């Protein structure tokens, strides 16, 4: 089962849409860190790099990540059909439930990988602002 899971993960992360989604999750925090209108639109002044992390994860989890996860999960099975490999895959002497579970577990792992990549990107994007604490007047902390 583990071998099948690793194989499904390999196939999932070879999909172009998954690779582009990971790239977008890594690069979008840099837009938040460099956004010129945060004070005018949201009333925020970046005083700490941790604000970039919280803004990026908040925006990503609300809008971007659900879209990317649904797209990757549907393409996981859809690519098998479009490439014609589903028929040959089902001819192998392994239970179909194991195949479906391996695809399901690989699709369930993808959001956590997205969160990790976005977290790393936002930490790097927030480094120029420093990683000190932020309190009051930022819209994200107490005060």
Automatic annotation (TrEMBL):
Domain of life: Bacteria
Membrane-spanning ranges: 20-38, 50-73, 104-127
Entry-linked Pfam families: ABC2_membrane_4
This protein's UniProt keywords: Membrane, Transmembrane, Transmembrane helix
Claim: Transmembrane helix is one of the keywords in the record: yes
Protein name per UniProt: ABC transporter permease
């Amino acid at each position: 089962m583990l071998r099948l899971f690793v194989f499904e993960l390999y196939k999932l992360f070879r999909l172009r849409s998954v690779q582009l989604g990971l790239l977008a999750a890594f690069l979008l925090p840099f837009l938040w860190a460099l956004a010129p209108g945060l004070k005018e639109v949201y009333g925020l002044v970046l005083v700490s790099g941790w604000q970039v992390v919280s803004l990026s994860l908040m925006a990503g989890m609300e809008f971007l990540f659900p879209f990317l996860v649904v797209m990757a999960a549907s393409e996981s099975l859809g690519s098998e059909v479009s490439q014609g490999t589903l028929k040959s895959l089902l001819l192998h002497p392994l239970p179909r439930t194991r195949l479906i579970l391996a695809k399901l577990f690989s699709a369930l792992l993808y959001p956590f990988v997205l969160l990790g990549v976005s977290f790393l990107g936002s930490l790097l994007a927030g480094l120029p602002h420093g990683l000190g604490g932020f309190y009051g007047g930022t819209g994200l902390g107490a005060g």
